[in-house]
Amino acid sequence: MRNPIGGLMALVLTITPLIAVAVPPLDEENVQPLEGAKELTAEQLVAAVLNNNAGLRGLAAAAEAADYRIAPAGALDDPMLTYAGAPETAGGPRGFQERVELSQTLPWPGKLALREESARAQAQAQRQSLSDQRLVLAAAAKRLFAEWSYIHRTLQIKHAHKDLLVELQRVAETQYAVGTARQQDVLLAAVEEARIDTEIVAHQRRQREVRAMVNGLLNRPPDTSLPPPAPLPEPQGPPGLPVLQAAALEEHPSLQRIRAQVDAAEAQHGLARKDYFPDFKLAAGYSSLWDDADKRWTVGLTINLPFDFSNKRDATADATRADVMRYQWQLTDQEAQLLAQLERGRARVQETRDVVDIHRRRLVPLAEENLDAAVADYRAGRGSFLNVIDAERQQLRTEDNLARAHADYLRALAALEQAAGRPLDGASPPSATSSSPAGAHGDAIEHE
Asked: How sure is the predictor about 198, in pLDDT bands with cuts at 50, 70 and 90?
């Protein structure tokens, strides 16, 4: 009589595991919302960076991979199918003798849940790392936009002052022709014009550098053109410190990430404590090696004996407990760092807002009046041309300082938003950074 499970070897060899690979769809279209725009806003740049940055996409893929690992972490190990045959029985009176066994490992109750909990917390930490990096990139994009705006504004100012110096040189030549000025006045205006030309060249180089850095964040070639910047937002007072602190402590991704790491470490510690208990393996099999048919079917239970002679389980439990403490201390430290950053960032926003206000209401008008008075005195023969040049330099510095302070406000606001963990509302529609550099004094020159 042949073995009742004859052909079992063929069955075993035909069992092929099917692996379902979940591949997230790739967004092949690299959206470039900046192309064709007449002017660039900070919000547009931030959105484009968050959509196109290669490093951010890598973190998004890592977060997706961590999510996929949750289900396997809480699943049972694969059942094991064991097959053996007795070669010497081939061709014997009873046919080829075989043995087959199916077994399943069952961990101690609670282990699978803790493994899944740990994987879930690690996935949450990965997602919060992605959110934190989004904050970092948004702040970096706004800082670069502030510099992009400042470079364009200061180039406008310097070109306007260069035109002003050409006009001043013409005035000096007229005065020299009628004998009321010196040739040195004409030369002084030409020297000042050449000095501004060198500053324009330096700013044009900086403009190319900033464009390259922006395109680097956008994952584009460094020489790709960018639209000119829209006017910067009007400086506003920041929210109150208690509001910022409460929001940051509750929602900031860096804190959420560490809290998730604490949860993962606590799950690992619970798993280490359950490692003192045995795991089980249930098995059922059939062996045709037995002559007695009643002995051929078997069931069995196997457990490991968790003796801790080498203290490996104690060491593992102690290590996981130390990991919990490590992340808890990291959380405490990060909370203190964020609170300090909020205090410094809010003070910086207030300072730059006040500096912009002082320049607009006092310094810029005074510098314009000073230049107008110097030009009028020179026309009347009561002042020197050097006073005119000094007044022109003072106004150039004042207008440039206003443009720099306005850009510094956006930088400070970006740093405060990064520390707060969210964008801060309250920015009103922008207005012009300052009046035309060649405004009042230019009209005075034309009418005199």
From this structure: very high
